[in-house]
């Protein structure tokens, strides 16, 4: 993509209402624009990040055996009355009426709707286990939306819902998602700690939040730092192996780790002092097992091996890609701007032509731009007639993992400069070697 043809509204100064780093940098880097309180437009750069996060989330959900569908944003109030949550959910739910005066709502979550879909199609235990997921925009009318997309009213959510015949099967489904989440966050470049958590309005009696440690976290968390050294489940993890997945779950839940709502001071005190970690944390995922909380009142039943009908056991599993974009910036930035992990950077390479109009720099940049693009590398080519300092600032703030600086002085020696954004490491290489390095 040539920057002269791209929409990238960089701000020199962050708006005063931006309280945390991710909010400031997302606005300054032209990733988002506020349209109303807690409601943001995702501009091209931000949308590229959101799509890359979503792609990794999808890959790991599919790997774990979940099946994607897409549910609507608008739901019938009648469904929520079946579960008794319509009145109980509170003012966070946006309630509306259509032209026929039917009560509707903008979905804050999808337990009721997925249960309705399930009960209309599945009748036998032979069709279980089943895990259905989607990526869909949600709306929760937060009393005080803040911190940009970290706590917004409209947000993108991946929510998966599992259905099993009994508690043992449901526990296996829970462990599947537990392992899938560990893999997902690792691929995104995050160290996420599963912590015992409150189930909140979704309900249930087994719940874990996946937390990344960050000074701007919303709440205090406590853990044994030995959990940070545990191995991530590999790509060839057997998600059919109940015992193997239980072993992963047991290993990660043996060390102490809890959110402030579930904190046990006595248990934490038993952790050796040199392993105690008390810090702020950002929630990046939340998983629940809630048994028959929805299937009983909504009559989501299947015939078991004995022919008797019984309500299915359910769980739900959420990851917010829009929130993750902000969390990644909180975890990876410096004074100059964002430092994206390679896997979700909007562009892999920022190509800087330091003297537009010079035949040598123009020619070298065209060669690099075409060669890298042909090899599947996402390149943002800064071909603007701007001073070099402005180009350096733009490249730094948007955070491409690699910068390629092409100027007359270097080309006189047959070289271009490669800069690694995360470390600041620089090297002079030929145009040909630059292509090799950036596609290795």
From TrEMBL:
Its EC number is 6.1.1.15. It is found in: Cytoplasm. Catalyzes the attachment of proline to tRNA(Pro) in a two-step reaction: proline is first activated by ATP to form Pro-AMP and then transferred to the acceptor end of tRNA(Pro). It holds the Pfam family tRNA-synt_2b. Residues 38-341 form the Aminoacyl-transfer RNA synthetases class-II family profile domain. Keywords: Aminoacyl-tRNA synthetase, ATP-binding, Cytoplasm, Ligase, Nucleotide-binding, Protein biosynthesis. One of its GO terms (molecular function) is proline-tRNA ligase activity. It is an enzyme of class 6 (ligase). SUPFAM superfamilies: Class II aaRS ABD-related, Class II aaRS and biotin synthetases. Homodimer. It comes from Alsobacter sp. KACC 23698. This is Proline--tRNA ligase. The keyword Cell cycle does not apply. GO terms for cellular component: cytosol. It catalyses: tRNA(Pro) + L-proline + ATP = L-prolyl-tRNA(Pro) + AMP + diphosphate. One of its GO terms (biological process) is prolyl-tRNA aminoacylation. The gene is proS. Belongs to the class-II aminoacyl-tRNA synthetase family. ProS type 2 subfamily.
């Amino acid at each position: 993509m040539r920057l002269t043809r791209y929409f990238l509204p960089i701000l020199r100064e962050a708006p005063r209402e931006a309280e945390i780093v991710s909010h400031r940098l997302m606005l300054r880097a032209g990733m988002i624009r506020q349209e109303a309180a807690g409601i943001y437009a995702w501009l091209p750069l931000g949308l590229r990040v959101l799509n890359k996060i979503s792609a990794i989330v999808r890959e790991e959900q599919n790997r774990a055996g979940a099946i994607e569908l897409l549910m609507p944003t608008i739901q019938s109030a009648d469904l929520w009355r079946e579960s008794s949550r319509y009145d109980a959910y509170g003012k966070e739910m946006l309630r509306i009426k259509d032209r026929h005066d039917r009560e509707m709502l903008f979905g804050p979550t999808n337990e009721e709707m997925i249960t309705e879909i399930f009960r209309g199609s599945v009748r036998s235990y032979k069709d279980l286990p089943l895990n259905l997921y989607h990526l869909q925009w949600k709306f929760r009318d937060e009393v005080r939306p803040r911190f940009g997309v970290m706590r917004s009213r409209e947000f993108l959510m991946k929510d998966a819902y599992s259905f099993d015949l009994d508690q043992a099967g449901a526990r296996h489904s829970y462990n599947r998602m537990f392992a899938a989440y560990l893999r997902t966050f690792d691929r995104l470049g995050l160290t996420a700690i599963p912590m015992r958590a409150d189930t909140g309005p979704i309900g249930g009696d087994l719940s874990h939040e996946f937390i990344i440690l960050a000074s701007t976290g919303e709440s205090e968390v406590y853990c044994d730092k030995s959990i940070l050294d545990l191995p991530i489940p590999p790509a060839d993890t057997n998600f059919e192996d109940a015992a193997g997945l239980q072993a992963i779950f047991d290993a990660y839940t043996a060390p102490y780790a809890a959110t402030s709502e579930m904190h046990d001071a006595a248990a934490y005190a038993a952790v050796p002092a040199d392993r105690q970690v008390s810090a702020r944390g950002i929630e990046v995922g939340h998983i629940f097992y809630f048994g028959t909380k929805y299937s009983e009142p909504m009559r989501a039943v299947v015939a078991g091996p004995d022919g008797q009908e019984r309500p299915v056991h359910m769980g739900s599993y959420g990851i917010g890609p829009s929130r993750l974009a902000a969390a990644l910036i909180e975890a990876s930035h410096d004074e100059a701007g964002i430092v994206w992990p390679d896997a979700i950077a909007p562009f892999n390479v920022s190509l800087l032509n330091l003297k537009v109009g010079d035949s040598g720099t123009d020619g070298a940049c065209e060669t690099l731009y075409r060669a890298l693009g042909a090899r599947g590398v996402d390149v943002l080519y800064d071909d603007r007639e701007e001073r070099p300092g402005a180009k350096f600032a733009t490249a730094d703030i948007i955070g491409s993992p690699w910068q390629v600086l092409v100027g007359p002085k270097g080309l006189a020696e047959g070289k271009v400069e490669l800069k690694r954004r995360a470390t600041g490491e620089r090297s002079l290489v030929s145009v040909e070697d630059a292509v090799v390095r950036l596609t290795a």
